[in-house]
């Protein structure tokens, strides 16, 4: 087992965050709202946003004492309030070491145990086989492939939809 832990992002993380996230190979697998290029100012703004979250929804992924990426949850609203979307990225120097799967497991446990979520899901571009394996290793199952559901880099793509259910749903049906 790797020595992965999740911790809150702090202002001192900004230079490392900017250096890792300013990578086209990472951005090609993320939502378009993430800036590219990714600057120090972008990192500082993201960290400030994360520090304002209550409860905490985004965390630094730390492995072997180093910031290696970020993981977070986007909670659903209204009738989807018992679900959240999982998102994550790992800096390219740290790919292939199992850090993403372990971070996804830790974040999923946090979502179920601390936030009272019933379902956590993630969408993956059809070409991102590494992220599909990350989710499968973290206990997620493929629910469906949404055909021509997203656009990235000017291409219409299928999105693979993965999900994991909490072991026992909230007895009251209320979450959070």
Could you characterize what this model shows?
The structure is a single chain. This protein is α+β, with helices and mostly antiparallel strands. The chain has one domain: 3-Layer(aba) Sandwich (Aminopeptidase). The protein is 28% helix and 33% strand. Helix 1 (14-21) packs across helix 3. The radius of gyration is 16 Å and the shape is globular.
Strand order in the largest sheet = 1-2-3-4-5-7-6
Helix and strand run: EHHHEEEHEHEE
Number of domains: 1
CATH architecture: 3-Layer(aba) Sandwich
Low-confidence stretches: none
CATH topology: Aminopeptidase
Strand content: 25-35%
Please describe the biggest sheet, giving its number of strands, its sense, and whether it closes into a barrel.
7 strands, mixed
How helix-rich are the residues, as a percent range? 25-40%
Question: How many beta-strand segments?
Answer: 7
Question: What global shape is seen?
Answer: globular
Mind telling me the C-alpha Rg? Answer: 16 Å
CATH class division: Alpha Beta
């Amino acid at each position: 087992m790797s020595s992965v832990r999740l911790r809150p992002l702090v202002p001192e993380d900004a230079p490392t965050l900017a250096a890792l996230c300013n990578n086209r190979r990472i951005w090609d697998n993320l939502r378009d709202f993430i800036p590219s290029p990714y600057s120090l100012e972008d990192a500082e703004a993201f960290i400030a946003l994360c520090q304002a979250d209550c409860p905490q929804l985004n965390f630094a992924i730390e492995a072997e004492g180093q910031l290696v990426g970020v993981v977070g949850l986007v909670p659903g609203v209204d009738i989807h309030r018992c679900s959240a979307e999982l998102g994550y990225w790992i800096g390219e120097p740290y790919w292939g070491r199992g850090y993403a799967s372990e971070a996804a497991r830790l974040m999923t446990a946090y979502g179920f145990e601390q936030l009272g979520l019933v379902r956590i899901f993630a969408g993956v571009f059809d070409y991102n086989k590494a992220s599909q394996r990350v989710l499968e290793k973290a206990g997620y199952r493929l629910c469906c492939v949404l055909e021509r559901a997203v656009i990235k880099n000017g291409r219409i793509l299928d999105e693979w939809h993965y999900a994991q259910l909490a072991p026992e749903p909230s007895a009251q049906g209320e979450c959070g």
